[in-house]
Amino acid sequence: MKYDDAHGPTVEVPGDFAGDPDGYQRLWTPHRMAYIGGVDKPTDDLPGPGCPFCRAPGLPDEQGLVVARGEAAYVVLNLYPYNSGHLLVCPYRHVSDFTDLTAAETAEVTELTQQAMRVIRTVMAPQGFNLGMNQGEVAGAGIAAHLHQHVVPRWRGDSNFLPIVARSRALPELLADTRARLAAAWPVRGE
């Protein structure tokens, strides 16, 4: 291994092993292949164990990455986050379109989104948020059949060249640790 003051540690790869050196440094993120390959994506639009948002609330919180539970909706850590603390607010009911939510589901998705922002502010001190709901595959919904609201904490300078060049993110904390910190800070219902 060599160290370059401008770029940090580098690994020399023999020319006969990986082709001729081309001057590019490589950042390997093999964990992203699961997402790219469709692991945990439903094979159909039906409710039930094939849908990760139907499956998660039936698992223990730590295993399902569930941070908080309401009566009509719940909050879960995104398995493939854009940033640390990226939460999803999902109705329990398998519904794809925001206009198909009941009044109670709409109210609780909104309340849980607001609470998620409060908890993330307390635990992680972000400087802003992206909130969003992609409706339909063409609009960017990775799982279009089960509605989910994204709550993404943002910090100045948190987006660097990785998402643009490598289509990858560097996250400073394990998902289980992030889930535990957010769940511990979530107020008990009724308090």
How would you describe this structure to a colleague?
With about 190 residues, the protein is α+β, with helices and mostly antiparallel strands. It has a single domain (about 45-185), classed as HIT family, subunit A (2-Layer Sandwich). Helix content is about 30%, strand content about 15%. The protein has helices spanning about 15-20, 30-35, 50-55, 60-65, 105-125, 160-165, 175-185; strands spanning about 1-5, 10, 65-70, 75, 85-90, 130, 150-155. The strands form two sheets. It has a five-stranded antiparallel sheet with strand order 3-4-5-7-6. A two-stranded antiparallel sheet has the order 1-2. The longest helix has 22 residues, at about 105-125. About 20% of the residues are buried.
Task: Report the order of strands and helices.
Answer: EEHHHHEEEHEEHH
Largest sheet: 5 strands, antiparallel
CA radius of gyration: 19 Å
CATH topology name: HIT family, subunit A
Which class best fits the helix and strand makeup?
A: alpha+beta
Low-confidence parts, pLDDT < 50 over ≥5 residues?
A: 1-17
| Biggest sheet strand line-up | 3-4-5-7-6
Q: Strand percentage, roughly?
A: 15-25%
Can you identify the CATH superfamily? Answer: HIT-like
The number of distinct structural domains comes to: 1
